[in-house]
Amino acid sequence: MESRPSEDPSSAPPASKSGLSRTQLGFVAANVRSRIWAFDPIGLRGAPADYHPGMRAFWLDSLLATVSDSFYTPFLSLFILALGGTAVQVGWLAATASLMGMVAPIPGASLTQRWGRRKRMVVVFSVLFRLMLLLAALMPTILPAPSAVLAIVVLMSLRVGFLNFFIPAWISLTRDIVPLSSRGHYFSSRNVMTALASMLAIPVAGQLIQWLGAPRGYQWTLFIAFAVGIAASYVFGRIPEHVSAVPRPGETAAGVLSQLRIFWRALTGNRVFLAFAMIRLLWDLALMIGGPYFSVYQVEVLGTPANVVGLLATAAALARMVGLRVWGRWMDRKSAAWTTTLAALTVPILPFMWIFATKPWHIIFPSIGTGLLWSGFEIGSFALLLELIEGEESTQAAAGYATLLSAAGVVGPLVGGWIVSRSGYHWNFALSGLLRLVAGLLFLWLLKPFGKRNTAAAEPAANLETVQELEPAT
User: Fold this and answer.
1) Which residue, of 8, 225, 322, 427, has the fewest CB within 10 Å?
2) What range defines the domain where residue 390 resides?
3) pLDDT tens track for 67-85
4) Considering only CA atoms, which of 395, 404, 393, 389 is closest in space to residue 336?
């Protein structure tokens, strides 16, 4: 005879104080867990379980690093101007920082090969990178204003040098932290949360500066950025690393010429990667011609106060959060090449929007456009780069790539500063927009992601053997 569950209340599982049985509580807990998994703020869904610890730590590191950057990056040019610096000095800061960034990646990759530990490389030099923020915060207290400006330029240049020293190791390690099949979902989820963090942190920093005044407010934002950044370095140190992915000490070629040959082979070993790097060089040159001068234009021409700059940056961060979700879905459905090309063809409109701005609030339009459009180029180009540098020499390829882009950062601000001094800001912005458009068309020519080849847009990258930044630039 078929048995039936007893209807005697005395045989039911004991109820909790809230009136729910253990079975019901278990069901509720499982439902909550399923909803959290469905929300998936970290982007773990679909990734193998052994990747989860590293992906969680990398996500938290990115979140803390974003908060740290948001407290000082949008206001660095304003800090220099508040100390009596000029637009030319702001341009020199961008140029010298990029020069340091150009010379740092190759020795950084060589040191990574010697140490045999990419994570150690990232942690050590990220601490040095963030120590420069603490020293820059102290400069107005220690030195008179003109000397403090020069000292801050030097420190911020060293900051970028330390950053680029560990960038090749960071890019190479990122390939191992996040599996290829999960990169679109993971990076879009991660970047949405960092955009939210940026959206909250930037106005707080702007209000703090407005409340404390200059230069004290800027100093406190740098102090906070330093403290949060050190926490990010600690969290990154918790990421598991596959030691076998990097040659152990003694396995690398000896001698400077041998090392340079390795980097040249890694950079030129695949024509698609080399062409992508050269087009990206033109793209970054266009960016750096105008990028360092947008904040200066806001202050000197439009008369925008620091708290309004922070609110505008928040609007860009909010738009970026929306854009990342949209672009992330498109990248999963299409490809990284499709996303990169479409974003590169639309971003050039942004500098022209600045030309028509005559009041501080007009910048809300390019700010929103920056968040929506740059988010696509951000996740698309980074995912494409990770595909293009697959192979044993990924660290060297990333170093050569970073060196090329830093070269654009040396030349771009100097050209931009010359145009501003001779012809004004509008001609600077127009040239920046036109060169970006040329680079976007070259991406279209190289990647050919639309039309009949749309479904196979990622194939060139998949068959190969082998992220601003002084400040967010429009």
Assistant:
1) 8
2) 47-239+259-462
3) 999 999 888 888 988 898 8
4) 389
